[in-house]
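Hi R.,

As promised, here are both runs. First protein below:
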Amino acid sequence: MTLAPQQGRALIVVGALASVFTALAFRLFDLHVLQHKELSALAQANREQVVHRQGRRGSILDVNGNLLADSLSVRIVTADATITAPQASAIAEKLAPLLGTDVDSLTRKLSGQSRYIRLNPRVKLDEDAVQKIRAMKLKGIYFEDQFVRSYPNGPLASHVIGFVDAEHRGVQGIEASMEDYLQGQAGYEVIERDRKGREIRALRTEDLGPQDGLNVVLTVDQVIQHIAEQELERAMEQFKPQSGAIIVSRPKTGEILAMSSRPTFDPTEMDASSADARRNRCVSDVAEPGSTFKIVVCSGALNEGIVTLGDQFDCENGAFMYAGRVLHDAHPFGVLSVEEILFHSSNIGAAKVGLRMGPARLYEYVRRYGFGHKTDIALPGEVSGIAHPLARWNSLSITRIPMGHEIAVTPLQMLMALNTIANKGVRMKPMIVKSIVSEDGVTVLQYQPRSVGPVISAHTSELMTTALRKVVGPEGTAPKAAVQGFDVAGKTGTAQKVENGQYVRKYYSSFIGYFPASNPEISILVSLDDPVGGAYYGGSVAGPVFRAVAEKVAEYLGMVPQTPPTEVTKVS
C-alpha cells in the first residue's frame, strides 16, 4: 500500500519526461525536416554576403582624345543584413555627419529589408572620413571601391554629353544614346564571414570579375566647342534672347565640331538645373526658319531649270497681293533677279519663284533637303520638325513656304540643308560619334561619313554659292558676317514668332554660312530666339556672332586666308 503513491509519482515524472522528449523530438523534426530548407538558407544568408563589383563606365572623349566625361574610383560605404533594427539608429547617428546626410533617412536605409545597401552613392568620401569610419569598427559596415561619373569641363558641351542617373545609367545626350557601349558589366564576389563579421578568405566560393565599358570618341573638338560656347554666352548677354544655339560642322563630311545651346546646365551640379536648361535646342526645338529657307526654293527652281540666276521678277515695291492677302518685304524692291532676291532677301521675289515652281516640285525639294523627318544624329530627343503634306497646304502656302513660313525646322536641319549646297549638292547625315575604342586604345567600331544622296546638281550648287557670297557683301543683308581674308557664302533669317496662332512682334534671328566659299571647310549656324534691344534682323544680330566664331575657328585650325580673296562671280 505504501508503494502506490511512489509509483504514481514515478509515472508522473516518466510521463513528463516523455512529453518533454516527445516535444523536443518533434521540434528537432520540425527544424531539421520541415524547416530545413528555409533555415539552411537563413544560416547561409547570415554567413555569406554577395559583394557587387561595378564595371567602369567608358569615357567620352573629344576628337583629339581630351576627356569630356570620365569615371572616378571612390570608396562607397555599404551595409549588410547583420544590422538589426535597434542597431540601425545608433549606427546612423555616427555615420550621418561623415556621409553628409541626416540621421532619419540613414536609419530608414539601414532598417530596410535589403541585404546590400550603398550608403553614399553620390557622396565622394575623403580619406579622413574613411579612416574615421574604419576606427568606429561598426558591425555590418564595410567599404567598396565604386565609380562616380566626372565631367572635368563642367557645363562645356553638356547638351551633347548628357548625364547619368544614380545607377550610372545614361539619361541624356551621348551618355544615353551610346549606353550599350559605355556601360560596364557588373561583377560580384560571394564571401563568408565568421560570427564576428570577419571575412574568411579561405572560404570564398564565387568570383565573377566586372567588365569595363568602351570609350566613345566624338567628332566634337573641345577647343571649337569652347569658342562656340564663349561667343554664344556673349550674344546672350548682349541681346538677351530667350534662348540661343550655335552649331559648327564640316559640310563635306557632316561632322559636328561644336554644338552649343542656351540656357545650359552643369552635369556636375544636376540639382541646380531645370529640365528646360537641359534641353538640347539644336535638335529638340523647332521654329519657322524665315528667310534662310529661301535657299530651298531658289536652289530647287535653279536645279529644275525653271529659272536662272539672271531671271527677273517684279517685287511690287514691297507689297504683293495674292489669294486675298498682302505679302510684304522688309524694304520695297522693284524688279530683282533671282540672285538679287537671295542677297536682298525679298519675300515677294521668293514667293514668285515658288509660284513658277509649283506646289508639287516645291514640296519635293522640301523633302529632299530633309525637312519633316529626323536627321538621325546619334543624340536622343531629336524631333522631325513640321513639313505639311500637299493635302494640307492652303491657297497661301505656295507663297508663304518659300519665305520660311508654315514650316518648322530644327537648327540642325537648317544647317544640314545649307551643307548640301556647300557640298556640291550632296546631303550628308550629321555625324557626332567618330569611333568606339577599348581602354587600351583598340578601335572596336569606326564610323564613316555617310551620304544621304544628291539633292541638287554640282552646277546648281555653284550657282547658289555665287549668289550667297553676295549676302555678306555691301549690298547684302549680312555685311557684318564677312570674315577678313575669306569668302563667305551664307543666308540671313528673320522670322516672326507665332504665339497662340498669331504672329507677334518677336523674332527668331539667324545666320547660316560656310567658308571658304569656293572650297568649304567649315559651316556655322547661329540662331537667337527673340533678341531684345531694338536689333532683331538676322544679319545685324546673328551675323556678327557668326563672324566672331568663324575668325577664331579659322585661326585655331590654321586655315590660310585667301590672298587675294576670290573674286565674286558676275552673272549676266
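And here is the second one, sequence first, then its C-alpha cells:
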Amino acid sequence: MSMTTYDSFGARARRFSPRLVLSELMMKQWFEPVIPFFVMIALWIAFSVVIRDYSSSENILSLLRLFAEFGFVALAMAFCLITGGIDLSVGAIFAVGNFSALFFLLVMEWPAGLAILATLAIGGAVGAMNGLLIGYLKARPFLTTLVTLIILRATVNLLNTHYATSFATNSTDSNVWDFLGSGNLFGLPVNAATLLIVLLIGHVFLSRSRYGWHLTAIGASRKAARHAGIRVNFMLFATYVLSGVLCAAGGVFYAARQTSTDSTTGVGWEFQALTAVVLGGVSLAGGKGTVWRAMIGALIVFSLTNGLVRSGVPGYVTSAIIGVLLLAAVGIDVKWSKNRGKVIQKTYVNPAYFELSPPPSVKSGDASPYAQNDRLIHAEAIGLDQVEGPEDVILDRQDRVYGSTRDGNIIRFSGPDLDQCEIFAHIGGRPLGMQFDQDENLIVAVAGMGVYGVKPDKTVYKITDETNRTWYKLNDDSRLRMADDLDIAPDGKIYFSDCTTRYEMTTNTLDILEARPNGRLVCYDPATKTTSTVINHFYFPNGICISHDGKSVLIASTSLCKIFRYWLEGPRKGQTEVLIDQLPGNPDNINRASDGTYWLALVGIRTPTFDLAMRKPDFRRRMVKEVPIDEWLAPGMNHGCVLKFTEDGRTLESFWDPTGVSHSTLTSMREHKGYLYLGGLENNRIGRVKLTGVDESWSGYEAYWGAKRRDRS
C-alpha cells in the first residue's frame, strides 16, 4: 500500500481536533496573554468609534508620546513582580526623576547629557536602597517600598514647593532637551522609540540570558534558586536598582515634555502599573512574565484611562474602574496559577476513533502460525534479578550480552556462562533500542534524550537530540521526546523511531490510548551530521529494522498492530507500504534472523474488549480522567510472544510464554549463534532459547558489518 493510501483523508482528519488545538495552545506560554491582547484591540476599536479622529495617525503618535513614560514605570514593576517581589514606589521614583532632571538642568544649569545621567543615577540609588533592604536585609518588599513611597512623596512635595519659582522662571536652550521632549526617532516619538528599544533588550535579557533565567528562577522558588547556586541577594538588589533606573528614565522624558513638576506627578501610578502588569499576565506569585505581557496590560490601562477621560467620564469613576480591573486581574491570576495544570491535564488527552483490522486466531492447537505454545516457558535465565526491564538485548563480536535497563544503564554479561555482570555504561534517561555500528560503537536510542553512542572503551557521547521542526505545529516538535528503537543502514545512516511527540516515557501509554499519529521515523546522517524527519504523522512507530538487502526499513506500529516497509532505494524509493496487516498483538522491536527472515516481539496481545475500546474515544477519555492508571483497560500484557516472518510479510512461526511468569511484555529478541536472546520491558532477566535448524555461526554484527570489516582490513 502506498503512503497516499496509508495517509488517507480519514487519517489526516483524525489528526485535528478543537480540543487538541485548545490543549496545545494552553501549553504555550505565549497564549496566556491572548485574552488581554484582544481586550486591548477591542478597547482601541471601541474608542475609535466613540471618539472622533481617535485612530488618526496624528492621535496615535500623540498617544504613544503620552504612553511611553507610563510604559517605563510598568516595565519597572514587571521586573520586580517576576522576582516574586513588588515595588510600590515606582510612581514616587518617577516623580523624583522628573524633579531631578529639571533641577539639574534649570537650577544647576548642567548640560542636558550630564543632567540625564545624574537623574538616572538618583533613580538607581533609590532603587539600591530598596534592593539593599529587600535583597540583603530580607525586608518585606510590600512594606519596604510602601515606606519608600511615603518618604519620596513627602520629599518631592517639599522640594517642589521650594523650587517651583525657579522652574517657572528659568529656561534652557538645549537641542538635546527639546529633542527628548518633542522629537521623533524612526518615525516614532523619541520616548516611544526608546521604550521599544528597551523592551527588545529586556526581552533578550529575560528569555535568552543567564541573568534573566536567574530572575525567573528566583521568582519561582527562592529556596531552590539558592540551592542551585544563584546569587539571590545580589539579583534582587540589582532588580530594584533596574526598577529605579527605568522609573527615572520615564521621569526624564516627562520632564522634557512638560518642563514642569507638581505634587500630582506620578500619583497613583504604582497601582496603575500593578494593575497593568497583572492584567497583562505577569504573575503576582513571581516566576512568570515577559516584557510584552507587561506592555499589553499597560496599553489596556492607558487606553482605558485616556479614552474614558476624553469621553467625559469623571476621574473618580475611572479610578474605580481601574480598581475593579486590579481585583479581577488578581483573582484570575491566583485561580489560573492554581488550576492551569489541571485544565491542561483534563483537555490534553484527545482520543480519536480507531478501528483495527481483525486479529488472527491465537488459539492453542490451531494450524495458525500464531497459535499459542510453550516454547519460551523453559527459557534459560541470564542475570536473574540483576537487571531491571532490559527493553532491548544485543550481543557483540565477543559473544557478550548487553541489556538496556530501566535505571539508565547498559548492563553487560560476559564469561563462558554469561554470569559476570558489569555496568558497561551509564547513559541516564531510559535506554531502549540498541545496535552496533561498523566501528563497534554501541548506538542507543534513549527516551527523553535522543540517540547516544558508547565506544568500546565505555565513553558515552551524544549523536543527536533533535530533528527539524514541523513548521505548522503549535508545539515545537524538534526535540526528540521518545527515541525508542533504531537500526543502521549500510551507508552508516541511523534510522530511528520517535514514537510520540506529545508524551514522555512515563506517559507514553497515553499516546496509544489517544490513537493519533504523533510519531515519526527520523534519520541521522553521520556524513553531514544532520538529523531529519523521514516520515511524519506515524502511529506509534516502535521497532526499526533495516532489511537484509539494505534497501528498505521495516517499521512496527504498536498502536496499529501492523508492520510497514519504507523504501530507501529502488523504483518505490520514498514510499511506505503495509507489510503485515493483521497481527494478534502490539508489535515492538524487529531484528534480523539468520535465514533471511525477521524476528518480531509482541509487547501485548489484543483482546476483543480493548479493540472495542479503540472504537470508543469518549470511553477512553473518561477512563483516563476518572480511573486510576493501574486500572486502565489495556491489551494482554501477561503473555510473552515472539514471531518469525518472511521478507514478504508471511508469518512462519511463533514462540510463546502464555503464563507470562518468565517472559511477559516481551519487547525484543536477538538471534546469535544458534540462540534467541529475549528482552522485556518489565522482566527481571534476559532469556535465552536454543534454536534448531539455524546457522549456528551467524551473528548480527557479522551480518551487518562483516564484509565491510574484511574489506577495510
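A quick note on the second one: The radius of gyration is 34 Å. Let me know what you think.

Best,
J.
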